[in-house]
Design goal:
This protein is mainly alpha-helical. The protein is 56% helix and 0% strand. Helix 1 crosses helix 2.
């Protein structure tokens, strides 16, 4: 059995049946727009990780404001 890298696999619709869901980069965005549950979960996780990402910035600014000792 010959191994293949994922980057070398063919990309295309593979002769999808009429009425089948689309495949490709825009299919995920279309699913986000149409499916309410996917949109809700994506929004919640995005907001959650924005909070975690801002923790780094806020902690540095707060330490500077409180007069943390510097090396």
């Amino acid at each position: 059995m010959r191994r293949r890298w994922a980057a070398t696999l063919p990309y295309g619709d593979g002769g999808a049946a009429p009425g089948a869901p689309r495949a490709g980069p825009g299919a995920g965005l279309a699913a986000l727009w149409r499916v309410r549950e996917v949109r809700a979960v994506t929004s919640a996780t995005t907001l959650g990780f924005v909070g975690i990402g801002s923790l780094i910035t806020v902690s540095v600014l707060l330490a500077d404001e409180l007069g943390s000792p510097r090396p």
